[in-house]
């Protein structure tokens, strides 16, 4: 059977642009790439406690058996959703199978025809995809630019009774930086029909329960998207918000409705990961490593995007150039990934360093010293 010509052309075009994606292999390099910021994905303690919890609760079931609206809403969902709402100071929480599902489910269903979505120009692909599925009009504002956001809000709230949804990330996945959430919230609060939505994927676990809570903004946010596949080292996501929002999503969010629920094991892992988060000293180790990375990169005069999070990026323009530097670092034993265009804009290609509680200070200094000799 012949492979469709148009698809073949797209693949060859990617090859020509040096941006063809390939699946990676497991390796034993020093990890500066995974999202397992606190080391929970590899935690035997978490694995053993989860197993014990399931056995003690006689929950020896492998799968959810159906959509949550049919047979899949097993009792662990209620337990974990209550736990999440309490820990995150939210009226309710609703678990989705992944952050991708949560974002497309929210944006495809909540903003209505005639409404407006204002999104940061560097927003994550899952939010962009959700926006594409929406009937609302969407406009970008400049990255982390409060003034531009305010201008756009004024433009779209004048003589208009439509709802406006503003979406940003509390830690940007490809830059590691954060917007001024307090300033944005002050602007948004002036308008009753403007609703603030924040994706906390890369803040949860790194900044305790996320930046919204750190800044005491819970009551000003319409919806928070939290994901468990990063700082918590497991899988799944939740939308935090009001009871009415939860009820709406259960009724209209298609990525929530038309899919098999998570397994009891996945939910038990989320439950235990939160318990571990409360007692683990990995958070303190991670914060120390972040400070060490920042001071070492300054000492070596390396040019990184300003960030206090676990993600630190060094812009190296050109797919070929950034790939060759990543390869050199990999050959010296460090797993550092190049982020290529079109994932990021052309000329904004970068090396993305993810820091972890389990990276040693020596590993951090060494990877940066190596980088300094290659750039
Ligand atoms: C900002 C952001 N939101 C959502 C997601 C999707 O989350 P998940 O991996 O759980 O699908 C990601 C993952 O890369 C992300 O970086």
Q: Can you characterise this structure?
A:
It is a single chain. The protein is of the alpha/beta class and 375 residues long. The protein has two domains: 17-38 and 281-374, Aspartate Aminotransferase, domain 1; 45-278, Aspartate Aminotransferase, domain 2, CATH 3.40.640. It is built from 14 helices and twelve strands. The protein has helices spanning 5-16, 44-56, 75-87, 99-109, 125-133, 146-157, 181-189, 211-214, 243-252, 254-257, 264-279, 282-299, 319-331, 361-374, and strands at residues 30-31, 92-96, 116-120, 137-141, 164-169, 194-199, 223-227, 237-241, 311-315, 334-335, 337-339, 350-354. It is globular and about 55 Å long. It starts with a helix and ends with a helix. It binds pyridoxal-5'-phosphate. Residues 98-100, 103, 124, 126, 169, 173, 199, 201-202, 227, 229, 237 line the site of pyridoxal-5'-phosphate.
């Amino acid at each position: 059977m012949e492979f469709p010509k148009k698809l073949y052309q797209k693949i060859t075009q990617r090859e020509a642009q040096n941006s063809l994606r390939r699946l990676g292999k497991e390796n034993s390099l020093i990890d500066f790439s995974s999202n397992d910021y606190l080391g929970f994905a590899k935690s035997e303690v978490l694995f053993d406690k989860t197993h014990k919890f399931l056995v003690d609760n006689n929950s020896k079931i492998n799968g959810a058996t159906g959509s949550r609206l049919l047979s899949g809403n097993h009792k662990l969902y209620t337990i974990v959703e209550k736990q999440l709402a309490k820990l995150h100071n939210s009226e309710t929480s609703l678990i989705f199978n992944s952050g991708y599902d949560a974002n497309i489910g929210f944006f495809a269903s909540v903003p209505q025809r005639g409404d407006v979505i204002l999104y940061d120009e560097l927003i994550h692909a899952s939010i962009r995809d959700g926006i594409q599925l929406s009937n609302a009009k969407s406009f970008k504002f400049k990255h982390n630019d409060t003034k531009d956001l305010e201008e756009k809000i004024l433009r779209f709230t004048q003589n208009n009774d439509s709802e406006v949804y503003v979406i940003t990330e509390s830690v940007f996945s490809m830059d590691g930086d954060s917007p001024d959430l307090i300033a944005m919230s002050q602007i948004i609060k002036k308008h009753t029909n403007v609703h603030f939505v924040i994706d906390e994927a890369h803040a949860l676990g790194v900044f305790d329960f996320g930046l919204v809570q750190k800044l005491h903004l819970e009551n000003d946010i319409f919806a928070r998207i939290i994901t468990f596949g990063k700082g918590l080292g497991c899988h799944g996501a939740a939308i935090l918000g009001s009871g009415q929002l939860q009820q709406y999503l259960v009724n209209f969010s298609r990525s929530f409705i038309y899919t098999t629920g998570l397994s009891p094991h996945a939910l038990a892992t989320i439950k235990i990961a939160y318990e571990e988060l409360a007692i683990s000293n990995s958070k303190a180790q991670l914060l120390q490593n972040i400070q060490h990375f920042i001071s070492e990169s300054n000492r070596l005069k390396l040019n990184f995007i300003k960030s206090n999070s676990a993600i630190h990026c060094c812009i190296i323009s050109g797919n070929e150039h950034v790939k060759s530097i990543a390869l050199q670092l990999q050959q010296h034993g460090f797993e550092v990934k190049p982020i290529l265009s079109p994932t990021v804009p052309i000329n904004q290609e970068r090396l993305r360093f993810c820091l972890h509680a389990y990276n040693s200070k020596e590993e951090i200094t060494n990877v940066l010293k190596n980088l300094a000799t290659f750039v």
